[in-house]
Write a structure and sequence with these properties.
- This protein is mainly alpha-helical.
- It folds into two domains: about 50 residues, no CATH class; about 40 residues.
- The chain is built from five helices and no strands.
- The radius of gyration is 25 Å and the shape is elongated.
- The termini are far apart.
- The mean pLDDT is about 85.
Length: about 110
């Protein structure tokens, strides 16, 4: 902030540019309000009521992200096992012919 008043149209134009750059709505949404709202003194709140804090705190994005991360680690480990175990010759010469997949009409 410069301490000088900013014309509302200039603020709106800047917010629209930022929203377009971030590919998001240029204002608070349920997604950004709940998932990007920190605990403590930096928390943004409209009413500062217990109900609003429950709304902010009880989102599951972090828990779901942790599950996805765990499953991706498991997937990567299993893929490494397949990569170490199956040679290209085995896959293309012995396994692949048992399930032919058309590609480009062939």
């Amino acid at each position: 902030m410069t301490g000088r008043p900013v014309p509302p149209l200039a603020v709106e134009a800047a917010m629209l540019r930022l929203g377009a750059t971030a590919d998001e709505a240029p204002r608070e949404t349920v997604y950004s309000y709940a998932t990007r709202n920190p605990r403590g003194p930096r928390r943004r709140s409209f009413t500062d009521t217990p109900g609003e804090h429950v709304f902010i705190d009880e989102n599951t994005a972090d828990a779901l992200a942790a599950v996805v991360q765990e499953r991706l680690r498991d997937f990567a480990a299993r893929l490494q096992t397949v990569k170490r175990t199956l040679t290209p010759h085995y896959f293309t010469g012995l396994l692949r012919p048992h399930y032919p997949l058309p590609n480009g009409g062939q």
